[in-house]
Amino acid sequence: MHLPDDNTDATERDGSGKTMHLSPMAGGADAVPGAQMPQPDFGLTLKPAAASTLALAVAACGGGGSGSSTGGGAPPVSTVRRPQTDAEAARFLLQASLSASTGAITQLRSEGYEPWLDRQMAAANSQAARGFFADRGFDRVDANRFYNSAIIGDYMIWSQLLSGDNPVRKRIAFALSEFFVASLSGINVTWRGPAIGEYWDTLNRHAFGNYRELLQDITLNPAMGVFLNTRGNRAADPRTGRVPDENYAREVMQLFTIGLFELNPDGTNRLANGNPVETYASEDVTGLARVFTGYDFDQAGLTFTPEVGGTRQIPDAAYIRRPMTADPARWVPARTTGFHSAEAKTFLGLTIPAGTGAAESLQRALDHLFNHSNVGPFFARQMIQRLVTSNPSPAYVGRVAAVFANNGQGRRGDLAAVFKAILLDSEALDPANAANPNFGKLREPVLRFVQLARTFGARSTSGNWQVGDLSDAAAALGQSPLRSPSVFNFFRPGYFPANTEIANRSLLAPEFQLVNETSVAGYVNFLERAITGGRAPVADIALDFSAEIAIAQDSIALLDRLDLLLTARQLSTSARDTIRAAMEDVVLTASSTNADRLRRVQIGVTLILASTDYLVQK
Amino acid sequence: MFIGNSIEIERRAFLRRTSQLAMMGGAASYALDLAGLAEAAAFSNAGGYKALVCVFLYGGNDHGNTLIPFDAANYARYAAIRGTAGSEDASGIALARSALANTALTTPSGQRLTDDITYALAPTMPRLKTLFDSGAMAPLLNVGPLIAPLTRAQYDAGSVPRPAKLFSHNDQQSTWQSSQPEGSRTGWGGRMGDLALTSNTNAMFTAINATGNAVFLSGQTAVPYQVSPAGATLYNPLQNGRLFNSAAASQALGTLLRSGSGNVMAADYARFNDRSIQYGAFVNDALRGATLSTNFGTGNRLADQLRVVAQLIGARARLGVTRQVFLVSLGGFDNHDGLIGTHDGLLGQVDSAIDAFYRATVELGVADNVTTFTASDFGRTLSSNGDGSDHGWGAHHFIVGGGVRGGRFYGRAPQVSLTSPDQVGQGRLLPTTSVDELSSTLGLWFGVAPSELPSVAPNIGRFASADIGFMRPLQTAATASR
């Protein structure tokens, strides 16, 4: 289908690299390659009557991200924005993915940003938690009592992050796990490893799907049900005075959808008489809590196996992958009556009539939250913080929020479009921003370790990726994936360290919530052990420095390679000089041993990853 | 209606003082003797060493099952509201009365509480009862953040300002610690630290955090120094002088860690490295000199933190400090479910940790000089959601120390009710004592001059008294213990 002229020359006009522009709706866009399967509408398609709002809709450049080859009208190859240097390419890879490699740099420079990203998003998810457990018998009932084990959950997530395909999908899923937080540390349930595994798989399944469906699935996910108490939540009982548990109702509003204050489309607080306006009150929490009543595990038809050496009946791990159900016939033991509230459920101006069933109530409630105008800016801002910079301009937030509201084809909540909008925005891509002292974000400890592992071909000696909980800041990494200490994630979006220049400039720096005198030292010690290899707490992980060893004798070539892959050439001149001099303290000649060559490499890698030029991602 | 604007804590004398202090975050020398700059009007360090220790219970401690109505009439009200635990329809979170006999607290003659209520501590807190009986522990009833005294009618009408974002974890943690919701730059512990800086030879150890980052200890100038239960964490490659067997690489590491330019976050990160490198070995050397025989047990994270605090107090002469504020914490109190079982265990850890810490201060001869107090995001509902309770507001907390006028109750006991005017629905308590009154009482004991109290407790001017009275009157400097 031929696209109108102002689509095809959009990238030429967009010297700034903006992929979004104001344009009238092109009327029937190309299908996105790898588009999601047909789903219930959830009221996502905007009604045609809202023409005036559509006039402000932003259309993705090239139409729905088709970018490459579907039909006529794809933009000419020469107008697709490409990285101008290897450093720019590496910089993008470190924003969008988990590591950079020379191969990926070459491909990205050849294809261009958007086509490369489209291809990553279209790639089938090749690795799932479910398979990890099944392949190793971690989901069997036996004397190992894996059903009580949390550490297999750690092994699973480390295997996902440290290895395997779909690094862009996983990077996004990790960011989502820090917004829709459920924690392995907070789910005391049978088969907690597979439980957090299913939660992770859910985030991956929907990473490039739709926010509304993701919200639905995490609400009914058993791990989340245990974490925030939807599981087993019951309608009020006037006889005993018991009232519904409010935990999920409060946190789904405060953290997963609308936040605490009314927002403008650019993420700034909407003010009334100079004051921020609260989005919800206690009564809203109480009313919404009734929606999340009556749910429990769906264990119908599953095998129960007696535990070895005990009498407890262990359900098949499949139960922890099924959405929770309000149908009491599917519980074990089954019941004839459930516990869903029959009262009217009123919150945020919506009243779900008394007697409305669980599924219908849930649909209406989640639709109501999803359609609140706060969701786009609230979500967009935090995802920008996870991927690009802690202090995005309101305009940047506004551009992404607009894509959340309408992906260009009338759909709200299109996550693929949102993440493309974040990663392809000029504020992310413009290399000049790296020189802005206020730009960037502190890399999270987990992502530092993951980047180290993936850059140097990490292998698991045991095959089970036996890395456990690395939360200890003194003795380990100070952060562990899917192990947030609470539903508030490892750090708050609004955190800044007091008595710093960050604070003086009124900047935010969420990841600094993990930074203190203990963790900064513990991190360096962790680095040394990880790069040495075979040392706890990551003794099972073997790194491969052969490519670096091969060029180690040329210290400049080695430094250039490490600088490019690890920091996207953001090492300062003085840091480079310091690191190079240290590396050359290991004198190498043609007859040097591999052990010495390795030593030079290890010194270079450690010094780079400990340097502040690396630690702050710009 | 609430005050949404941030409260500027500006006092001209205070600002003048801070401009005279050397930069604390940078390369301060250990022998920074600032005693000459102290202004007698703002702060008094008479009375020897003093320390405040905040035990923050993250998640919102269920006060209803921490200090439980024990007399027959009030217990009956409590049990009717909370339901019997383990009942067939799974509605109960009330503790059995028979389990409370060992931890029942005797209200002193001369004190009558609301509705003649008497209290028992949770069954897993027998040590706090012993401390109460010996006069070293005082319960503070129904304390919570307030901007001004507030009645139920005023709350309903919105006619008097109340704290923003009530019932939100992160905001109430911040409000308890700093009088403002999330985004606050200073906490009242840090603001006391600001006043105490000039009392300390080594001002950098004025505020010490033995747990995760929190605003409580951040001052305008005071920067909290963070330690782990094992003390300071040192950089192995710097301690060993070698990185991958290269001394040059070790030195390069030291240089790189402390360098950060061209980017604000990089520069600030470098300052954390710098402080950690500068002070770590010094702190551990000081700790090595402090022997402590009090047993803190194992497997109790709060006890682990309080142990290192006790050791630091033992090392105070070597550290060069006279006035300190500490923060420790325990998490897991957000008991929306599993209240029975989980909560008792947590309270047991609080009980044994605080008791061990008190005994350590006795061993160190500073029992009268160290005051410990609990705090939490909020209390919880009195009503049950089946197996737990939901977010509340006012709560009961404990103050422990040799300087405490213990063995009696402070604050006003709330009615045991879902309909009384001292609660705002489901038994969430409307506080009758404010956090500002708590912090000002502690501040006065710590040495904050009455005129300086608003810089610590910004709302104190709206309350009847700046001194709740749970600290014994200050002794003269001559009789105070070192």
What would your notes on this structure say?
Chain A has 618 residues and is mainly α. Chain A is 42% helix and 5% strand. In chain A, β5 and β6 form a beta hairpin. In chain A, α5 packs across α6, α8 (151-162) packs parallel to α10 (192-206) and α16 (375-387) crosses α18 (415-424). Chain B is α/β, with parallel strands linked by helices and 482 residues long. Chain B has helices at 12-20, 72-82, 126-133, 152-157, 169-178, 188-196, 236-239, 247-257, 264-288, 301-314, 316-319, 339-363, 435-446, 453-456; strands at residues 50-57, 67-69, 119-121, 137-144, 207-209, 225-226, 323-330, 370-376, 395-400, 410-411, 433-434. In chain B, the strands form two sheets. In chain B, strands 1, 4, 5, 6, 7, 8, 9, 10 and 11 form a nine-stranded mixed beta sheet that branches. Chain B has a two-stranded antiparallel sheet with strand order 2-3. Chain B is globular, with a radius of gyration of 23 Å. The termini of chain B are far apart. The chains are: A mainly alpha (618), B alpha/beta (482). At the A-B interface, α13, β4, β9, α21 and α22 of A face α5, β6, α8 and α9 of B.
- Please report the total strand number of chain A as a whole number: 12
- Span of the ends, CA to CA of chain A: 39 Å
- Distance from N terminus to C terminus of chain B (CA atoms, Å) equals 48 Å
Spatial strand order of the main sheet of chain A? 1-2
Helix and strand content put the structural class of chain A at mainly alpha
* Shape, principal axes of CA atoms of chain B: globular
Helix content of chain B: 25-40%
* Mean pLDDT over the residues of chain B: 90
* SS content category of chain B: alpha/beta
Rg of Cα set of chain B: 23 Å
Order of helices and strands of chain B: HEEHEHEHHHEEHHHHHEHEEEEHH
Low-confidence stretches of chain B: 1-40, 476-482
Low-confidence stretches of chain A: 1-71
| Number of β-strand runs of chain B | 11
